[in-house]
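Exam revision sheet. Question 4 asks you to relate a sequence to its structure. Input first:
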Amino acid sequence: MYHVLLAVDETESRAMAQVNAVVDLPEASSEVQATLLYCFTDNPSGGSALQVGGIRRAMEVLDDAGIETDIVESSGDPADVILDVAEERDVDCVCVGGRRRSPAGKALFGSVSQSVILNADRPVLVAGAKHAE
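Answer key, structure tokens:
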């Protein structure tokens, strides 16, 4: 079984790009297991990952594709949480969503995807949505 961690944020188009990348893996319905991760940067009201539209839609698509899926929710620095969950779950691959940013925007705000790519000790798949913000 090939275990993929999909680190999903609130942008549904990016989540769908990530899900489609996983569904398109060879023999996905029989050989791929997916863990959806949603990281709250701040969650004082005790929200659930299932309240996030991208998570619900991702679960539907993965289920329809016959891919065994579970959900993990956490809080903290997203890049650190992604790397920690990848290690804890001993996943084979991490799938993150990419977005277009100007070089100045990247320098000023950083990038979760970039941090995961540079610090992961396992393969990282970046799936970008054409119209994601």
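Marking note for examiners. The mean pLDDT is 86.
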